[in-house]
Amino acid sequence: MVEKTRIGIIGLGYWGPNLARNFDELEDAKLVAIADLSTERLEAMKRRFPDAKLTTDFNEFPSMGIQAVAIATPPKTHFRIAKACIEAGLHVLVEKPLTLKQEDSETLIELAREHDRVLMTGHTFLYNPAIREIRRYIQEGELGEIYYIDAVRTNLGLFQLDTDAMWDLAPHDISIANYVLDSYPDSVMATGGSFIMRPYNLHDVVYMHIRYPNGVICNVRVSWLDPNKARKITIVGSKKMLVYDDIEPLEKIRIYDKGVSTPPLTDTYGEFRASYRYGAVTIPHVSWHEPLRIECQHFIDCINNGTNPVSDGLAGKHVVEVLEAGSRSLISGQEEIIERAPVPV
Amino acid sequence: MVEKTRIGIIGLGYWGPNLARNFDELEDAKLVAIADLSTERLEAMKRRFPDAKLTTDFNEFPSMGIQAVAIATPPKTHFRIAKACIEAGLHVLVEKPLTLKQEDSETLIELAREHDRVLMTGHTFLYNPAIREIRRYIQEGELGEIYYIDAVRTNLGLFQLDTDAMWDLAPHDISIANYVLDSYPDSVMATGGSFIMRPYNLHDVVYMHIRYPNGVICNVRVSWLDPNKARKITIVGSKKMLVYDDIEPLEKIRIYDKGVSTPPLTDTYGEFRASYRYGAVTIPHVSWHEPLRIECQHFIDCINNGTNPVSDGLAGKHVVEVLEAGSRSLISGQEEIIERAPVPV
Amino acid sequence: MVEKTRIGIIGLGYWGPNLARNFDELEDAKLVAIADLSTERLEAMKRRFPDAKLTTDFNEFPSMGIQAVAIATPPKTHFRIAKACIEAGLHVLVEKPLTLKQEDSETLIELAREHDRVLMTGHTFLYNPAIREIRRYIQEGELGEIYYIDAVRTNLGLFQLDTDAMWDLAPHDISIANYVLDSYPDSVMATGGSFIMRPYNLHDVVYMHIRYPNGVICNVRVSWLDPNKARKITIVGSKKMLVYDDIEPLEKIRIYDKGVSTPPLTDTYGEFRASYRYGAVTIPHVSWHEPLRIECQHFIDCINNGTNPVSDGLAGKHVVEVLEAGSRSLISGQEEIIERAPVPV
Amino acid sequence: MVEKTRIGIIGLGYWGPNLARNFDELEDAKLVAIADLSTERLEAMKRRFPDAKLTTDFNEFPSMGIQAVAIATPPKTHFRIAKACIEAGLHVLVEKPLTLKQEDSETLIELAREHDRVLMTGHTFLYNPAIREIRRYIQEGELGEIYYIDAVRTNLGLFQLDTDAMWDLAPHDISIANYVLDSYPDSVMATGGSFIMRPYNLHDVVYMHIRYPNGVICNVRVSWLDPNKARKITIVGSKKMLVYDDIEPLEKIRIYDKGVSTPPLTDTYGEFRASYRYGAVTIPHVSWHEPLRIECQHFIDCINNGTNPVSDGLAGKHVVEVLEAGSRSLISGQEEIIERAPVPV
To answer: What is the tens place of the pLDDT at every residue in A5-63?
Structure first.
């Protein structure tokens, strides 16, 4: 029997308690301690996790025999806390976005390599069975050549002060697009509006237009200020089209067997004939498992097997790059190129 | 009893037969003739409109006693045909877009003024009872200060060769935004993709970001290449939010009594409190009448009463301006300012 | 070229003008005359069908050279008018329900045989491409053994005085069930409520439970007094389940590849294991054509080819039988057996 | 501070763990022990409720100082276990259905009275904020005179061996109808089908037609064998109509301001004019709280305050009466009258 990995959680905002619950229920992990600056929040965990130690200082973790941490603090603290944990010899799972700067992500990747620790980014959708299925369809060519992706992620709230709507919501869609396309973008143009958050100079509505190699585009609309909750991704390929609707409880994926044949170039209008193909819609049955549970188990497995996570530091960095370029574009009003240091082999 | 206005139709594409049917059924109009270059298409109208004269040359219209024409030919011919008709002393209703160039719209407006003829653009949505109701809500302040509009108009096809998806579909949304906001945009940024229509150098997917005065933004997504047919407009105001869904047969408007109070500017995170308000959703009952019927009747009324149409030449020109700026932006990759000649008083 | 069949329409209520329009647009039919007792209603047809003769007495039809009639008068007049027309040598298409009494249907069938005329019932759904596809699935065993059908047909209005909601709405569902099952029911239990129509002693809400051979049941809910418009038929088979939603503009049929295996009979609770199977949902693409157009064309084809219509007099009679038994059950409060004279060979 | 009520849970099937969790999280209750015949199921609770004693014999409860129990065992054991608990001096909350026989419910009511204990039935929907709001609308006359209720509760599975689909699913709808109408039915007619469960002689599909005083009818359709999960209740009144959809995450209630005026009785068809009224649809915002939490708190409050629960023994008995009559009707094929002993004052 594998020894249980001893886990610490840092940060008790919205997501931390979910991480605590999931690690607590894993067979081969043990939730040893929880850290947060607020004693009030720590207190609230007592009843639910009576066996976990509670502390306001995560630096005490190593002395508790903790081997791995999940960091769910505000984004601007991710780099500092993850760095300290890796240097203290801990495996780290960092919530998205990995850092606020591309260079900081690179530093974490380098550090994890040096210390031989697992560095994982909490891109939960990469552990969502439906998204994995979609990646498979695309990689196996079922949709044909991919033309474009359109993603919508809107609802009313929750407004935050340390990120805008783009940094809050778009990491999901960017991580999904990178993952299913198995590719990384070249440039971003972003535009948006600042309404409720105007006093804070933060955008509550953002539209991103992201260019991938081979002419593939990905358009992301995020909003904290919309009457409808939507989490919908449309993927249009040359053979089929697919819609992923995360709101649907059961029928999350719809595959449309329809398309248009590119008409041959002609000089005269009269000869133009787009050839439309309309076929069945298929809603595949995807066995559902809680993505966060799969993600937590994957973190433990990577630690135990010495393997690299699907959402590793590099995957996290590739999302941060896009967000940084998006922020530059929101200011410049222009398309911004994503510069990437060559990945060391 | 008012004498019946004698009407001619020019163009038997998709829309022309609808115009013919509507004018034919009006009490105070008489469908006298239909013109099209294709004798085959003319022939097909014979059974349905046995009393209408059929001709391949609309220049014969004045000699038939025709007083007013509805022009539903391809957009690039609008200016030439409309100009000829006005100069021949006819009142003209031109399908959207009014022209392909802002200056041409101005020329038509000027000509109509000189000849004292009615010049009307076929922006049908301005005669849609639901859109009129929405304008009333906004003008009466029911939604509060308007923050932004998001419009989606997508489906599979129909691809065209003489316009891209933006010129084909966006005129509806631009005309609606101008109308309900009672305002005209200052700038446009557009981006998109060219997939099926790449050989023709035409965009089949376009995203427009349009800036109106006072920080209001309007974002339009149009696509000829989408598995879902959508015609949805979201309007977010400081008091309420509204969604117009043109696909819904009955429940076209939903008003959400929900919003967020702008939080006061504070230095510390701890004090930040966005105040959310959640209330009822109301789906008003709007008496439905076919918008095109209302539009056709309005054309006749304007002719008889010497009044200016709601969708007059100026309204048509204000849409053309935005499309032209959009086309410039698709090429430049930058936001394009809309320059307007001062409207002569 | 086939000579055009000369058609007369009797009755200008809700359905008559639709029949007139469709026959008018058929290649091998000619709408010769329209009869109605109301001169006002006749007058209203003048503009739309300028070439049709208008009369208040359908007995004039033979003298106009009319060969076939479509009867869309109130149900209680169907028998009398259809009988007169057949005896006058006309082919007849009678709107549903064929008659109010089973014996009257039998008389019409007998008369049509004697006079060698086509007798067709206007069960439009039997010409609906989606319903035909559903029959094919069932007949080919794709759904497995059929367990039951549940049909819902509700909305607000239109209340009528000469029929209750059952006779008005249920003929559609009964004709569909008979057709897709290729079978006829043995008994009916009906119950309902009389609210708005209480003064007239008519049910505005009725639930029918219809038993077919082999334990198949069909449950029909009809209501004139419901906030939602619904036209939905669920068919549950041992292999797959199917939902037909007539309100859906495109996705009318959904086939659910799910089911349960009958558990083996056991004495002990502990051994009980129902085995569930969840699979994909498929929404087939069904090419759409207006059912009434297909129906009208079929009537003409049967006349020309001397063939028997899909919805012949017998099909009409089999629906009347069920409605009659339903009416008896509404009074008796008991299940009513459907007695059938053996069909003469 | 109120002393915490000491709670025991009996039965660890589907519902028991939910009861355990809710009582565990209440401020003024203490989950002391859990009983089940299966040591395996007991074992599985250890991790989640480490402080609760686990036993296979609920008769040990009084010796543990337990004051109140929640019984979530199979229905056929409800009577025996509840009786034993009341006689042992415990307050009891019994899951629905209270018992399998009306007389047994009466016995429990009598016993609870004698021992001065709280007897409560677990009709959760009576603690559902949306259902409470609907009762308020009806009681305050907002819907006008109630005409009828139509309830649908379907999905695929879970099949059970000790009840049919009616006893499993219909208690919800019957308890809701009794509650919102504030009335009890006079008779039931039930019919259904036995397909998967034919070997067990159990109905998996049942339609109930329940008559309340004043001509109000309530129709309940339950099915274990349906491709769609539905939990929908339509309530039609003379002024307004209402639909409750329990599947909807947020918009559970829709109120339709539409209706029909009863036409005056006339002799002639020509004068018949139903007057339709179409108005807005309103989706009220109902603050959501977990109904089971409210129910558990209510049980504790009734114990502490000596008050009678909303879903008391009598409410439970009134549901059992209807189910019993339904079972009789399924056999007799006839409407069955509900006989009620006069309630002792």
So the answer is: 999 999 999 899 999 999 999 999 999 999 999 999 999 998 788 889 999 999 999 99
Q: What is the pLDDT of residue B259?
A: 85
Q: Is residue D279 part of a domain?
A: yes
Determine the average pLDDT of the residues in C258-277.
67
Full residue range of the structural domain in which residue A280 is found: 126-290+323-337
In this structure, what are the phi and psi dihedrals at residue B59, rounded to the nearest 5 degrees? Answer: -65, -15
Q: Report chain D's mean pLDDT, rounded to a whole number.
A: 93
* D318 domain-assigned: no
CB contact under 8 A, C207 and D219: yes
Against a cut of 0.80, is the pTM above it?
yes
- Determine contact: A37 vs chain B, CB below 8 A: no
pLDDT of D270 > 60? The answer is no
Residue C303 lies in a domain: no
How does pLDDT run across C194-234, given as a tens digit for each residue? 999 888 889 999 999 999 999 999 999 999 999 999 999 99
On whether residue B342 sits in a domain, the answer given is no
Question: Are residues A21 and A91 part of one domain?
Answer: yes
Residues near D171 by Cβ (< 8 Å), separated by ≥ 6?
D96, D97, D123, D319, D323
Q: What is the pLDDT of residue C195?
A: 94
Residues of A in contact with B200 (CB under 8 A): 263, 265
Residue A263 has pLDDT above 90, yes or no: no
- Please identify, among D85, D108, D123, the residue that sits at the C-terminal boundary of a domain: D123
The per-residue pLDDT for A157 is 79
Phi-psi group of D214: left, alpha or beta (phi > 0 → left; psi -120 to 50 → alpha; rest → beta): left
Between D251, D278, D284, which is nearest B285 by CB? D278
Q: What is the CATH number of the domain that holds B255?
A: 3.30.360.10
As a three-state string, the secondary structure of chain D is CCCCEEEEEECCCCCHHHHHHHHHHCCCEEEEEEECCCHHHHHHHCCCCCCCEEECCHHHCHHHCCCEEEECCCHHHHHHHHHHHHHCCCEEEEECCCCCCHHHHHHHHHHHHHHCCCEEEECHHHHCHHHHHHHHHHHCCCCCCEEEEEEEEEEECCCCCCCCHHHHHHHHHHHHHHHHHCCCCCEEEEEEECCCCHHHCCCCEEEEEEECHHHCEEEEEEECEEEEEEEEEEEEECCCEEEEECCCCCCCEEEECCEEECCCCCCCHHHCCCEEECCCEEECCCCCCCHHHHHHHHHHHHHHHCCCCCCEHHHHHHHHHHHHHHHHHHHHCCCEECCCCCCCC
What pLDDT was estimated at residue D260?
Answer: 85
Mutate to test the interface with D, among C143, C156, C222, C229 (most CBs of D within 10 A): C156
Residues of D in contact with C148 (CB under 8 A): 193, 195, 205, 225
Question: What pLDDT score was predicted for residue D264?
Answer: 62
Average pLDDT over residues B172-198: 96
User: Least CA distance to B148: which residue of chain A?
Assistant: A193
CA distance C185 to C187: 6
Shortest distance between the Cα of B233 and any Cα of chain C, in A, equals 21
